[in-house]
DNA sequence: ACGCTTCTTGACAAGTCAGTACAGAACTGC
DNA sequence: GCAGTTCTGTACTGACTTGTCAAGAAGCGT
């Protein structure tokens, strides 16, 4: 019937995401997006709905990828749940909350959670961004909480601890490492932060 | 000799900080700063050096205020160090890393650490902002580490734990609560995050 | 009271921004 | 091969941006 699109939508959104990450939302112009994606202005406005539309769709795409990561790494049998949580924590503080098969970003700053970055920059005045970011946080938190519960069932964590509280705390550590880690601290430091957090998780009291 | 300035420099910088907080760096125009501070364009360029200069000085002012808060709350005798740490944590996760005499901000989002916000938005391409933010983090971290050491000396924390590791971890929790707390979570949730973190601090093993 | 220096105000110019419109290209279906 | 539809690229517009400049106001010292 008509001419098909000559670009891959997801690929374009990913390129836009990188650009937003590097320069922030207000720091990137439509021309920047155009250059980063290779698309002309017209195509951008046709396929998405301008700059804001690109952001929302890029965040949605990020959410889609993000949602699978923790589940893949954390879901599973009760045995090994604590080890899975350990492995996930170590990855997540380095800004790689995705599945094990995606390579870590070369620079920690660029790897900071996209949702968190956008939420902090424009979330206060942009309810849609705020909501998308919250979705990102929730999906991670839910997966972590479930993994904590599994570890509790397996007797690896104190059953009296509130798994939701622990999940919130771990999520907070992960988000915090985006900020702390992005600027001035070595990967080793991030690793030791993750190890410290993990080591402090409440073990069952062996009576 | 000459006409003196008709405005209070610190007051202006504080107003600019609020504006930067609300709209981000790239999201606020010089006119916005002008409106927020009441200063005309010319005065802004005369007193500071344009928008970027205002940001740097506002961050420096923030640093100055920030640096005193943790010290005031955390420094002191070894007895009570753990309690001081507890009180500080509770305040800090609510975005009030300042001295006890400054009132908490009404909105958690606006209270997110100014340095962290700016660093995340423009730090990647702005070394000066990056450095200032790191200074802010360091001063808090050093005060926390010292307080941890005091608590260890007093026998309230496990002396085998690395105080610097703990300080990094706590700083990360505080920074993370800027992000987690700013969007969608209640103050109660933040309090419980702080309490969880505090409860997990390694107590001395009573043989 | 006067001159000097600095501050303040408003306006200005050059550049950039987002979004639109239009013309041409490309592909599908027949 | 042709018609129709959609995509693509570019040029354009109006608004907004930053930084500068010059003229007037305000205080200080004498």
UniProtKB/TrEMBL annotation, chains A, B:
SUPFAM superfamilies: Homeodomain-like (SSF46689), Tetracyclin repressor-like, C-terminal domain (SSF48498). InterPro entries: DNA-bd_HTH_TetR-type_CS (IPR023772), Homeodomain-like_sf (IPR009057), HTH_TetR (IPR001647), Tet_transcr_reg_TetR-rel_C_sf (IPR036271), TetR_C (IPR011075). Residues 6-66 form the HTH tetR-type domain. It comes from the Bacteria. Residues 29-48 bind DNA. PROSITE patterns: HTH_TETR_1, HTH_TETR_2. Keywords: DNA-binding, Transcription, Transcription regulation. This is TetR/AcrR family transcriptional regulator.
